[in-house]
Amino acid sequence: MVQPTTFTRQFLDEASQILERLDTAAIDHAVSLLAETRRRNGRLFILGVGGSAANASHAVNDFRKIAGFEAYAPTDNVSELSARTNDEGWAGVFESWLRGSRLRVEDAILVFSVGGGNLEKQVSANLVAAVKYAKQVGAKVIGIVGRDGGYTGKTADACILIPTVNPVHVTPHAEAFQAVVWHLMVSHPDLKVAETKWESVR
Fold it and tell me: Considering only CA atoms, which of 184, 56, 162 is closest in space to residue 109?
């Protein structure tokens, strides 16, 4: 059994390794696509399930308030989400929501996911369907995902892969570093348009 202090040091060391291994070129490419989306007056739809859904909600706030995007997360509307799940099925819930939002070529979707979706393993099929629909429409697809990237990693226009440094901690690290990366994005000089509150307090 790992002693608590040893585990804490191990977990933080793993986080440090992830920071060192993040692909900065992939992040910069994603920032470039987001900047182009905003220039074209495109909207940003942020998709996630579970902990990644909570991250999507937080990120919508940051992209709207700090980076000046028109941004939305389907999981923020529990009435529509649960109605669509009940009536149409969980696998198509994001695709049908994007259809209802009239996703267009100027828009982008940002996928937060631990594994990126995998139809063969029947994991996050709703993300796979959403990505397929976005590609069909011509909207940009950006992912911040873990493991091998899954379907999102294979098909996205830009994908930031959170490196796996310990398979036992894939989920907590992937979801934690989604937050690191999106906070980097909204702080990036190519995207940031508004000062954050505490930085403006003198």
Answer: 56
Of 137, 152, 146, whose CA–CA distance to 180 is shortest?
A: 146
User: What secondary structure does DSSP assign to 138-191, as a single string?
Assistant: T-EEEEEE-TT-HHHHHH-SEEEE---S-GGGHHHHHHHHHHHHHHHHHHSTTT
Question: pLDDT, tens digit, for every residue of 152-184?
Answer: 999 999 999 999 999 999 999 999 999 999 999
CA 16 to chain centre: 21
Which among 135, 5, 174 has a CA at the least distance from the CA of 127?
A: 135
What gap in Å lies between CA 100 and CA 39, rounded to an integer? 23
CA–CA gap between residue 67 and residue 189 (Å, rounded): 10
Which residues fall within 8 angstroms of residue 15, CB to CB, at 6 or more apart? 173, 176, 177
The Cα–Cα gap between 15 and 180 comes to 11
Tell me how far apart the alpha carbons of residues 198 and 202 are, in angstroms, rounded to a whole number.
Answer: 8
Residues linked to residue 109 through DSSP beta bridges, in sequence order: 45, 141
pTM: 0.93
